[in-house]
């Protein structure tokens, strides 16, 4: 029996276990909700606006348009968004830009909150610090 066959059988067994699935989904939902609420609180404390109507998913749309420096990019706000994204990357924070998702206006970013609490706190601290530079 190959290792991929063994893995398939293991996952099939897990998926057939209804009690496991119920427990897993309940815990997953609880952890995601906790992290979403934590991320929202940290964003509020930092004065970062975000889309607060979401109730599913693993990310929050945040608005960093006030932190775009279009004067550095000859008034091209989309280029300023890319520049801000590059500054985040230099600080060790990778976030998807709105441009990647065809946002209607520059300055929107996706923050993923489905990570450990320490990672979430540190990531938000770093990008807030970067955005305010």
UniProtKB/TrEMBL annotation:
Keyword NAD part of the UniProt annotation:
no
For this UniProt entry, the molecular function terms from Gene Ontology, in alphabetical order, are: pyridoxal phosphate binding; transaminase activity
Question: Which Pfam families does the entry link to?
Answer: Aminotran_1_2 (PF00155)
Origin superkingdom: Eukaryota
Enumerate the spans annotated as Aminotransferase class I/classII large domain. 4-127
| Any single biological process term in GO | amino acid metabolic process
Q: Which UniProt keywords apply?
A: Pyridoxal phosphate, Transferase
Write down the PANTHER family for this protein, in alphabetical order.
Answer: AMINOTRANSFERASE CLASS I_CLASSII DOMAIN-CONTAINING PROTEIN, BIFUNCTIONAL ASPARTATE AMINOTRANSFERASE AND GLUTAMATE/ASPARTATE-PREPHENATE AMINOTRANSFERASE-RELATED
- Protein name listed in UniProt: Pyridoxal phosphate-dependent transferase
């Amino acid at each position: 029996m190959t290792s991929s066959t063994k893995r398939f059988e293991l996952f099939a067994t897990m998926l057939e276990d209804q009690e496991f699935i119920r427990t897993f989904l309940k815990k997953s939902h609880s952890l995601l909700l906790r992290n979403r609420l934590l991320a929202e609180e940290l964003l509020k404390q930092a004065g970062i606006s975000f889309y607060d109507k979401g109730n599913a998913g693993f990310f929050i749309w945040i608005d960093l348009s006030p932190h775009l420096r279009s004067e550095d990019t000859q008034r091209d706000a989309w280029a300023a968004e890319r520049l801000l994204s590059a500054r985040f990357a230099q600080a060790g924070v990778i976030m998807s830009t709105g441009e990647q998702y065809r946002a209607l206006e520059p300055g929107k970013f996706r923050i993923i909150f489905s990570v450990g609490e320490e990672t979430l706190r540190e990531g938000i601290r770093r990008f807030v610090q970067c955005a305010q530079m």
